[in-house]
Amino acid sequence: MAGVSGVVLPDTSVWIGHYRGHAPALRALERADHLVTCGPVVAELVQGLDPERGALLWQRMAALPWVELGRAEWRTVGEVAARLRAGGAPAGLTDVQIAVAAAAAGATLLTADTDVGRIKQALPGLAVRVVAPRRAA
To answer: Which terminus, N or C, of the chain has the lesser number of Cβ atoms within 10 Å?
Structure first.
């Protein structure tokens, strides 16, 4: 994917686009061992699938390196969410968790969510690449 190098953490919106055929470049990144994931992304994906498809997705995602959120990262999640709320532009806690995971891993957050700019302002050091927004279903 042009403009993305190093380790990449695709968020849920990118994985959904990938599975709908809108983001085939993830295959190349996956083969090159550039992808990581985190629990909140996997949970969001699995929740939207029937048990059989969820089990298949789990196998695929479990094979990727995972970014775990430790105590320091959970504190950062709370602090970033508080800064956003205090600034009058709150963000979903799951989105903040995913952004903190990407920052903690030194990964670029790959997203189709254009609202991520608010989180980036509240989370110094977060590298973001916004891809084409999600297509309406």
So the answer is: C
* CATH class of the domain defined by 8-130: alpha beta
Q: Are 45 and 57 spatial neighbours (Cβ–Cβ below 8 Å)? A: yes
How far apart (Å, rounded) are the C-alpha atoms in residues 26 and 1? 8
What does the pLDDT average to over 42-69? 91
Q: Minimum mean pLDDT among 22-26, 46-50, 106-110: which range?
A: 22-26
Assign 111 to helix, strand or coil: strand
Would residue 25 be called left, alpha or beta, if left means φ above 0 and alpha means ψ between -120 and 50 degrees?
A: alpha
Please classify residue 80 by burial: count the beta carbons closer than 10 Å to its beta carbon, then call 0-12 exposed, 13-18 middle and 19+ buried. Answer: buried
DSSP string, 18-61: HHTTS-THHHHHHHTT-B-EEHHHHHHHHHTS-HHHHHHHHHHH
Ramachandran sector of residue 3 (left: φ over 0; alpha: ψ -120 to 50; beta: rest): left
